[in-house]
Amino acid sequence: MGLFWDNSPTAFLILTILLGGSAAWMTGRALARGWRPVWRVVAAMLLLALPVRFFHWGLAEGTLLSLHYYAVDAAILVAIACLSYRLTRARQMATQYPWLYRRTSPLTWTERQGSQKRT
Length: 119
Prior knowledge:
Elements: H1 9-33, H2 38-60, H3 67-96, E1 101-105, E2 108-111
Antiparallel strand pairs: 1-2
């Protein structure tokens, strides 16, 4: 038994990283595209960790009611979803408001020199 997986690293990789991670990636992207706040990403991933834990139990004979492994799954899903959210939001800000913001890295943007915000 490992720190991240309860019975099989292969099951952890397939169920948590590949299946859960792809759902987390798409959820983070969708919430960013809908201009939702980042707290909704965290709330959605806490809910998504429940079926991922169920899949571990049902498909890989893992532990269903384990707070430790639920927290591990949820933390990984939150990290993936937040990364997707931030990448999408940085692209949105630089693309939709090019006169106000410019992209400084894949995850960040900054205000352009000389731009004035209307209040």
